[in-house]
Design a protein that fits this description.
The chain is an all-alpha fold and 273 residues long. It has 6 helices and 2 strands; from the N terminus they run αααββααα. The relative contact order is 0.05.
Amino acid sequence: MKKTIALLAAGVLALVVLAKTTNVSSYVGTAWCKARNAVKQQVPTEFEIDRISHEIASLDSALDHMIRPIAEHKVAVDRLRKDVADDETKLNEQRKVLRDAIVAVKNAVKGEQLVYGGKSYTVAQVTHKIGLDSESFKRFEAKVAAQKKLLESKEATLHAAQEQLNGFMTKKKDFELQLAQLRAEHEVNKVAAVGNDIEIDNTPLTNIAQSLADLKDAIQRDRIILETRKGIVDVNGIQLNQPEQNATVDLEAIQAHLNGAATQKATSTVSNK
């Protein structure tokens, strides 16, 4: 058991040393990168355009996930903003009541009854209530101040989220525009490539030409066969079926005639020169 553990440890150590000394991880990473690039280069342009278009369209789902929490946050901010506004209104009303009560106490004469909160009190009672209500006012004032800080924080968060959303939507539209331009350029390339890629199949024309040549040869062959059967033409165009003539052939006269025709032709040629 100990021997097995020792062998495993030695194997792990050997792998670590090999990785450090030979940069195996670097080789593997480089090979993977080259393989991935090679595969990517084999992807047809039309397919790559459709793939990117699908990815851009899938951004709508991401937008939905972004818009919903932002909308919920905006509702909460609007509600808090309204609560802060209402509390500030109440705070200002209470401030005015306390100020008026303090002024009334200071200006009151001995034994005078003062109206506070819709009821009549003595100056001492009003003074006591001013002390109590001022503490409540301070607590309420602190609450409103905390709400205002919370509102400012939530408004900042909402603004940042809206900026991110606007940036996301702008980027999506930019991607759509870029893809549309690239798609148009690809279509132009396809149209331009049509003239270079068209190969006219001349096989039918060649076949017809060969058929006509064969037909011409066949007709000529048939004519020769017919004429040969009738015995009227040999290879040199001399009739073969001429009847035998008993007349003596004057070879000397023919030779003289032929020689005279040749001399006459030579003389004519010299004259023309």
